Amino acid sequence: MPFKSSLARSAGKLFGVFKEADLSLRGATQSTRSPGDVEATGGHYTYTGPNNLKYHIFTPTTPAPASSFVVTNTGPSSAITLLLIGGGGGGGAQHAGGGGAGTLFYREDYPFSATTYPVSIGAGGAAGSGPEAAGGQGGNSVFGSVTVNGGGAGGGMGVTGANGGSGGGGGMRPIPGSGPISGGTATGSPTDPGSPYVHAYDGGAGSDYQASSPNAGMGGGGGGAGSVGSSTPASVSPKGPWPAPQGAVSPTNMYGQGGNDYSVPTTFMPTDVVLGIAAEMGAPASFLGVAVTPTFSSTPYAATLLFGGGGAGGSHGPWGNFNNDGESPTGGGGSGTPTSPGWGTGGVGGNGSPTNPGGANNDIGHPGVAYRGAGGGGSASAAKAGGAGGHGVCIVAYPIS
């Protein structure tokens, strides 16, 4: 029997080399590398879930070299799950449009190899500040060869919503009978145009100032990752607060609502993973900007799965608007889904109604939720700023044994 030193035996274990008989080669032994698990580094945070998935989470402040996803061994896996979203656009000022959400890319079978994937995360757009001011554009996000555009800015009063990942909402036109102000067009992804994994929609139109009583108007909702932002038609009056009281739009007033959010599958983010990542990030009461508790008593679990809501438009008094005064402390509430209206990540628009605590036309636009690429809400006053857009995020997940 040939001699093999302890150093050689240790090296064999270290590099995953083992011996197995190969009868086709007359019983000779062959060296084979064990595939093992995926070996990868990168991300501001990593978390291994009880669902046997490992997660890498990239934020705008992830420092180098962790700002790249570095794969040294793919193991038996041929694909990863990739969630990438650009920064949300900022809401405009003065009866303004909501900001559009950053483009969302979600793919459960994204092919990967042993290489380095540069990652950068788009910032949220600035809030519009000053009379008729538009918001700021959201920043683009990048993972390797995939780029997703940041959300379009919400238009200030009389200003068209900007094109962007999802388009920004148009501001209210101040002249009666002159027609709506259009929202921005969704630009999606420059690297993956038309891909089924790309989710982005146009912004809604702002109404004109309507001469029929009650005289008022409203900005358009920013586009979301799940649907277009809402437009307020001139034929519907009066517009009341949300949910609509008797005599107002029924069953609920969706005018000015930001475009719907995209809901990731529960298999990607089950409840125990949501709480585990929150704890890993040092904020167990907040999962990626959405308030939670260990029992989800104050926030529906479904709300933690929502990303990319459009910002809601701000109204001119005496009209109310979508989910007025329903924002969470960290923003959101200006969008949702058909089954969870008002629980979305887009910022609530400014409430122009006299019932607003600050009085008529005196409400800010509220921010989109951070880590969600959500658009900010438009304000209801020239003296009040819109809401800033939420920055984006990248989450990579893959199976481990």
Tell me what the structure shows.
By secondary structure, the protein is mainly β. The chain folds into two domains: 6-34, no CATH class; 37-401, no CATH class. It contains two helices and 19 strands. It has helices spanning 6-14, 271-280; strands at 17-21, 29-33, 39-41, 45-48, 53-58, 68-73, 79-85, 104-111, 116-120, 141-143, 146-148, 198-199, 217-218, 262-263, 286-287, 290-291, 306-307, 315-316, 393-399. A six-stranded antiparallel beta sheet has the order 4-5-19-7-8-12, covered by helices on one side. Strands 3-6-9-10-11 form a five-stranded antiparallel beta sheet, with no helix packed on it. A two-stranded antiparallel ribbon has the order 1-2. The longest helix is centred in the last third of the chain and has 10 residues, at 271-280. It is elongated and about 70 Å long. The two termini are 36 Å apart. 57% of the residues are buried.
Distance between the terminal alpha carbons, to the nearest Å?
Answer: 36 Å
Summarize model confidence as the mean pLDDT: 85
Largest sheet geometry: 6 strands, antiparallel
Strand content: 15-25%
* Overall number of domains: 2
Order of helices and strands: HEEEEEEEEEEEEEEHEEEEE
